[in-house]
Amino acid sequence: MQIVGYMILLVFYLCYFIKMFQQRKQGIQTDHMGKGKQGIQKKIEIMMKGAAIATFIIEILSIYLNTTTFPLIIRIMGIFLGIIGDIVFIASVLTMKDSWRAGVSYEEKTDLITNGIYQISRNPAFLGFDLVYLGMCLMFFNTILLIISLLAMMMFHLQIKYVEEPFLKQEFKEQYLQYYQQVNCYIGKRTGFK
Asked: What angle do CA 15, 21, 27 make, to 5 degrees?
């Protein structure tokens, strides 16, 4: 169980850092969390980054200590959620190509991506994070891991609602509003749209 937990995290974070490294080689700044922002947007991005780092640390400790109070079947469900989270995250990063960023950049122009996995989720990278976090909680449950994972997931949602969506509405206007009306925040198309 511990090896599987480490592998899920390794695949997830390797994808994240390999993409960041590839973009850096092309002169693209990937990490924009808290940079060039003020007020609530800056606070949300900084808190989101801190929560993500804290969650990673608690996940590693939980795997190392092999903490859990759940039966094997629940832990196996956690494995499947973690693997699905990896797949969703990788698909989102690959689909975004060079438009992928961690945080919003007001200086760099990117394309609005609505194809691939973005046809069924406006935020598949965050969905991938959430699924990995939930998977880790089921595999290595402890109260601290649950609390920090929920905090990180809440910060991701606030990032979407108060930073990314306002930016995308301003940047892409009608194109984004049409996409927003057709595809759900996390998963699924909205009914009544083709």
From this structure: 135
Cα end-to-end distance, the chain, whole Å: 42
- 14: which 2 tokens? 């390797």
**DSSP, residue by residue, 45-104:** HHHHHHHHHHHHHHHHHHHHHT---S-HHHHHHHHHHHHHHHHHHHHHHHHHGGG--BS-
**Helix (H/G/I), strand (E/B), else coil: 11:** helix
Q: Is the pLDDT of residue 62 over 90?
A: yes
3-state helix, strand, coil in the chain (%, to 5): 70, 0, 25
Distance CA 118, CA 183 (A): 8
SS3 105: coil
State the pTM of this model.
0.90
Mapped onto helix, strand or coil, the DSSP state of residue 29 is coil
Total length of the chain:
194
Flag the least confident range among 4-13, 40-49, 120-129. Answer: 40-49
b/e string for 28-63 if b means 16 or more Cβ within 10 A?
Answer: bebebbbeebeeebeebbbbbbebbeebbebbeebb
Average pLDDT over every residue of 97-108? 76
